[in-house]
Amino acid sequence: MDSRLSLAAWTAVCDGLDVALWVVDGQALDILHANEAAARLVGRPVGSMVGMAVQALAETPEDHIFWSQSAQDIVRGIHSRTSVRHAGSGHLVPVERRVLALVGHEGLLLLTMYDRSEQEASERELETLLSELRATLDSAADGVLTCNLHGEVRAFNQRLAQIWHIPRELLVQRDDAAIREHMEAQVLDRDAYRARLASIALEPLLETTDVLHLRNGATIERCSVPQLIKGRPAGRVFSFRDISRQAEVQAGLRLAARVFESSLDAIFIADEQHAVARINPGCERLLGADAQALVGRPAQSLLCPNDEADAFMGRVADGWARRGFWEGELALARQDGSRCAVQLSWVALRDDAGAITQSIGFMRDLTSQHAAQRRIEELAYRDVLTGLPNRLLLGQRVMAAIDGVSTRGGGFAILFLDLDRFKIINDSMGHPFGDRVLQLVARRLQDCLRQSDMLCRLGGDEFVIYLHDADAVVAEAVARRVLDEMASPFMLDELGFSIQCSIGMALYPRDGMTLDDLIKQADTAMYRVKERGRGSYGFYQPQMNAHLLSRMKMEHAMRQALGQGHMAVHYQPQVGMADGRIVGAEALVRWTDPELGAVSPSVFIPLAEESGYIVTLGAWVMEQAIREAARWRRCGVPLPVSVNVSALEFRQPGFVERVTGLLDECGLPPDQLELELTETILLQDALEMEQLLHALSQLGVRLSIDDFGTGYSSLAYLKKLDIHKLKIDKSFVSGLPGDEGDRAIVRAIASMGRALRIEVLAEGVETEQQRLALREMDCDCYQGFLCAPALPMADFRALLARQWGASGLLAGGEV
To answer: How far apart are CA 277 and CA 87, in angstroms?
Structure first.
């Protein structure tokens, strides 16, 4: 049969179909034929589509991508959902689209589209209906749980999860057994809960109501009804309602009756005419009369004199009208003629029409409260311990002084006084003794002031003095008088002792315009006095704040430097005196800040110790040093590394365990780690330090004494402790060889080391003459600029590689 006729016959058949259909040339992608259904779908006449590129029907990215493929890919066809635009309305019509090769007609494609508008509208309507049903279920005030006859959960709402506190992760798991177990765990009586559910399950048509008590204190009402489908039970619907409030109300009513009878407050109930209907025992006690004598009397006759009753009830009525209650203080007349102050709260109760049906009065005896209030007001302005004015009263005095200065001129002074090392008294004698000492100090300070001045205790051992109409001369004279007075010995419980103080001074208006500013500046001046040795006084200077600000900025920068990579560990070689070979290295932290530049260790190490940051910094240096020494060892250079340990770091709990863990983790033998300690550490808590040092020695870690000879020591620890090295401080080395005193000290230390079999190292060796002198005195080794300063890690590795021939040290990465 002729293919043209076959195609013509085939298209004629297609014209009668209700499915939109196009015949497309597979090479040119032009439309060869379209049926009437296609014309209706896209709103184009059939004739206008013949010869049109099929891409003109493409509206989605997916369609454009499909028709832009090669002919071989297009022939494979596609079956998907997409959209086509109706030319008349311009609307996108959702369709189910299929493209396939036309069998028997090579090179022809068949494109069909099925209009899904009604189907999608139905799906949207169904989705909307389901969403509305779900929203209705979730909006219900009760928790709802639907189960089938086997107890499997079919549906629930959010209120159920709220009432039973079901976690979200449990809800999304859809684990029915876990949900049932969770709900069962919330009930106080689990056995009764399980038994009741079992009995309900045996009777599918049973309707039940139960009350459940949960462990969190909630009371839940559970109702269950059968779920029927075509008249047959298909499951069960449980609803849960939190009736805790209703239960509380019922219990509250019972409790209210008890409260009325047992309340310590006086309570009376009056009728709509304000006649007393009932009073409680507390009211009888307050008024000094029994209930029989009071019931039936006008309430106002109990509360105020008869000639004041009308005016009083007018105020009460006004309060009822505006707020529903009246409250205020009254001087209540008792039956015996005495009066007492009471706080009255009188509440009006109204019906639905707004008419007063009853009123309830609550009266509280304020006698004790007024006495306490007077005491509170006294304490609010006074220090409890010393009886001195506190900061609140000082603030009022200073504000008045500022107002006076603004009108007549002049000024005043603020002195901030802190007792030096007062903590020693508290720690040694106890806080009660310290409190009595503060009372003695307060009396002495008060004796140094004029009637117009004011002494205030801020707290602890800090005092503030306000000097009225005073300038710098007066302030300095008072400060001297205070220091002289405090210099006299104190005597308490037959114990004599001395107390020293430091004083900072600020002047108004030169140093500040408010009390807070003046106290701050005086405190700053006092802090500077303590820095310079304590026991003196000083005036505030503006540059003091700049110094503190600079210190604060440096501390902040230091704390950030470690995380930002601005800290580095350098290594200074320790050299044998006999052969000049490197026998060890000291790890030293260096800080180079982007803004501050290279910060000297003599600046930031004391700051780190004072702020406590030395613990973090020291731990980091030790970890870096141990890791680096382990690398040297792996490269064939078993060189010990020494690390300085501060007193604060050494006293940290778990210090020995941390050192042990680092050595194990890095694979460094303990005898290749040397901890440098100061004599100060050995003198603090000697027994505890001895135990820690013994533990480290048992571990195999070497111990050295840094800056030996500069501390205060009995040297007894050299006999008791396993010390491996003494480091002669550079202050004794700098004078060699000419200074006889330095020579004597160094010789004595070297001799002591030989006698005790302790290695002796000299620090700060800078000249060959110093090295020769030290060698003559039998020092074992030295470190200093004569050999090398502290070197960056890479430079020190290069130095080791040259001396030890360990080229592996110069390789990058771990070895």
So the answer is: 87
